[in-house]
Amino acid sequence: MPYIAHDQFHQYYDKMSPVETQLYLRNLLVALKRVHDFNVIHRDVKPSNFLYNRKQQKFLLVDFGLAQDISRRRDVAFSFRDVALKKVPAEDRCWHWRWGRGESAG
């Protein structure tokens, strides 16, 4: 898992402008949509699992320890390593970095 320098949510949430809040939520939803496109649900979405670097405007969805592959059995949890290495094509493995810079998700 790559390291991303990030701020703690409680340090910045009340300082975010409406535009920055919209950017934050858009990137969270794009990250979740991308994970769902591979039939995986995160199951532990919370501010501490969506890292945000305000200065660089980078975002990273982390902690896939409770993630679940819904295309198979619904009671099997997969780790981030399983999801990243087996489900995601090589060219898409760094999607969170690409989208964090505001590039197109498509």
From TrEMBL:
GO molecular function: ATP binding; protein serine/threonine kinase activity
Top EC group: transferase
PROSITE patterns per UniProt: PROTEIN_KINASE_DOM, PROTEIN_KINASE_ST
Domain Protein kinase: start-end pairs: 1-106
UniProt keyword annotations, A-Z: ATP-binding, Cell cycle, Cell division, Kinase, Nucleotide-binding, Serine/threonine-protein kinase, Transferase
Superkingdom classification of source: Eukaryota
Biological process terms in GO annotation: cell division; mitotic DNA damage checkpoint signaling
GO cellular component: nucleus
EC number: 2.7.11.1
Any Pfam family hit: Pkinase
Gene3D superfamilies membership: Transferase(Phosphotransferase) domain 1 (1.10.510.10)
The protein's name in its UniProt record: non-specific serine/threonine protein kinase
Species of the source: Culex pipiens
UniProt lineage: Eukaryota, Metazoa, Ecdysozoa, Arthropoda, Hexapoda
